[in-house]
Amino acid sequence: MAEQDIIRRSGTTDITPASQARVGGVKKVAKLFDATKCNGCKACQVACSEWNDLREEVGEFSGSYQNPPSLSPECWTLMKYNEIEDAGKLRWQFTHSACMHCADPACLKACSTAGAIIQRANGTVDFDSDKCIGCGYCASACPFDIPKISAKDNKAYKCTLCSDRTAVGLEPSCVKTCTTGALRYGTREDMLFYAEKRVEELKARGYKNAGLYNPEGVGGTAMMMIFHDINDPESYYMPKDPQVPMATEIRQDWLKPLGTAGLIATAAFALMHRITVGRNIVEEDQPGYIDAAAEKEEDSK
Amino acid sequence: MSKQEMIVRHKLFDRLCHWTIVVVGLVTFLTGFSFFYPSFQWLGGIVGTPQLAKVLHPFFGIAMCLLLGLLLIRYYHHNKWDKYDWPWMKAVVWVLLQKEENIPPVGHYNPGQKMLFRAFVIFVIAFIVTGVIMWQPYFAPMFEASTVNWATLIHAACAILMLIAIVVHFWMATWIEGSITGMLYGKVSKAWARKHHPAMLDDFKEEEK
């Protein structure tokens, strides 16, 4: 199948980009997680494992309902529980944790393999397990700590935003199952519009710092979040200012071109040197730097 | 050449070690190259598939580093900086231009080779440390993502620098004729030693006594 909705692929130079023929008729989509509506029921986590046929091992109780403790190759959506002390009262904050589908994905930039990570015309980011070699560059580059490498098959896994469902007009399975309406899916435009209204509503209800988490450092994300307090995303286990990491940028934007130039320059210089200076051969009778008398004496030994 | 007296420059063990490193290192570099340049992923095909390249690269890399480490230890005593080195270093342009009358004598290794030696010491240590940190799926999960990411950058930077060093090594070895036969069969002629490493002959005089 020719996947013409792939607009960006990893390990591919700008000279030979992914298919660019489409003119933008495919609308960008977004999943919106409204933390102010979430009650932590985990239906999204279960729906994800159901639809994607994943069964993470049942772990041990460690004082939190959060289980497994983190995302894994067998757990692509995780309900995170954070206990917050607020004016002497205990309050729970829930985070629907899964791939953020960045507009400028660090994983795609870091990837070692052509086409193993792709970005679709609708803005979502997907992994092609068939191509993946399991180097883990995506896992170390992701500012949200999302991709996980499986020790079973040496491949990276993460939420696909149910690309197999969205391709045929369905919403992601987590959204389909959400019990409170905290998860929504639609065009990015619609989600931004809805979020704006919802944030206004929250502000009117007294949540003065309510806001939309759509971090600019990664070009915005196709999973956006509404928080009670946008100034403190860390209380939702989300980074304050996620970026494509500096080490990834240096490696891909600086080391690669400079290193290549250095290599070619050295090889070219060596070749020119060999051709211009010529062979360096030892002549049979060459006296070298020891004077003739000493040489004679030495040779006579 | 036949009449020339030959002297040992590389012992059998060191020669075997050197050429094993060449083979193991070639696999390591081709597979590593395939991760750094996705467009050249086919170079990793030396071991089969890209997936196999990923699995095997660390093992070949460890073998390369251990053997190279061993060779560096064995050649350590030849690579201490000595009185011959500064004058030779100042005349390095004459060395490249092959104006032999202007080149001061050096010992078993010249300063260029000694710098290569030092670079390899750094690379071996850097490769092992960063390589273990980024090794999926065994060790990388034990470290912070940002640590692994920086390790990846340092690993790649060292690899490029080492590749440049190897290009220079190859260039010099093929230019100074007699070097490669020396590394293959162990012996160089006395005339060769006088021309390229005159002070090396002093070591032999001492050994003969």
Descriptive report:
- Chain A: It comes from Shewanella fodinae.
- Chain A: The beta chain is an electron transfer unit containing 4 cysteine clusters involved in the formation of iron-sulfur centers.
- Chain A: [4Fe-4S] cluster 1 binds at residues 38, 41, 44, 178.
- Chain A: Its main location: membrane.
- The complex is a heterodimer of chains A (301) and B (209).
- Chain A has 301 residues and is an alpha+beta fold.
- Chain A is built from eight helices and eleven strands.
- In chain A, the strands form four sheets. Chain A has a four-stranded mixed β-sheet with strand order 9-2-11-10. In chain A, strands 1-5-6 form a three-stranded antiparallel β-sheet, with no helix packed on it.
- The radius of gyration of chain A is 28 Å and the shape is elongated.
- Chain B has 209 residues and is mainly α.
- Chain B has one domain (6-208): Fumarate Reductase Cytochrome B subunit, CATH 1.20.950.
- Chain B is built from nine helices and two strands, in the order E-H-H-H-H-H-H-H-E-H-H.
- Chain B has a two-stranded antiparallel sheet.
- Chain B is elongated, with a radius of gyration of 20 Å.
- Classes of the chains: A alpha+beta (301), B mainly alpha (209).
- At the A-B interface, helix 3 and helix 7 of A face helix 1, helix 2, helix 6 and helix 8 of B.
Largest sheet of chain B: 2 strands, antiparallel
Helical residue percent band of chain A:
25-40%
Mean pLDDT of chain A: 92
What is the helix/strand order of chain B? EHHHHHHHEHH
Report the portion of residues of chain A in β strands. Answer: 15-25%
Ends distance of chain A = 81 Å
Which spans of chain A have pLDDT < 50 for at least 5 consecutive residues?
A: none
> Which blocks of ≥5 consecutive residues of chain B have pLDDT under 50?
none
Structural class by helix and strand composition of chain A: alpha+beta
Task: Write down the CATH topology of chain B.
Answer: Fumarate Reductase Cytochrome B subunit
Provide the gyration radius of chain B in Å.
20 Å
Number of helices of chain A: 8
Strand content of chain B: under 5%
Helix count from the secondary structure assignment of chain B: 9
The tally of structural domains of chain B comes to 1
Quote the CATH topology of the largest domain in chain A: Alpha-Beta Plaits
How far apart the termini of chain B lie comes to 26 Å
Name the CATH superfamily classification of chain B: Transmembrane di-heme cytochromes, Chain C
Give helix and strand order of chain A, one letter per element, not per position.
EEHEEHEEHEEHHEHEEHH
Strand count, sense and barrel status of the largest sheet of chain A are: 4 strands, mixed
**What is the general shape of chain A?**
elongated
